[in-house]
Amino acid sequence: MLNAKNTYFSRLAGTEIEASGTDKALRAFRNSIVRETEELELSEYLWKNEVKDFVTALRKAGIKSFVVTDHSTGLMEMLHQFAENGCTLEGLATIKRAETPYEDAELVNGIRFKVDHNM
After folding, report:
1. I need a labelling partner for 109 at 20 to 30 A (CA). Which of 12, 37, 66, 91 fits?
2. What's the CA gap between 35 and 41, in Å, rounded?
3. pTM for the full model?
């Protein structure tokens, strides 16, 4: 389970974020907390110019892995961008999430990446 009081993301909250990849990392973190996922879930597409900032933000926040559940047509490019930015594809994953606190959790298929913190 993610720590809702992550100090890096807590400091970002309410600030003007210039890097859109960092903003998407914060949004993915918030959505994961609300949906009560077991680990960080990336459910939206990252543009090529956002991936580096996204991964850097995860490193600063101490996030060790994340699951991509995006289904966009550009998914393959995004997966390769993660690898180029120091993430290791671990394989297929299934996570549990609830869109709202009033719904039962559902199983969602995705792809798990490990974040290399030695870069």
Report:
1. 12
2. 9
3. 0.89
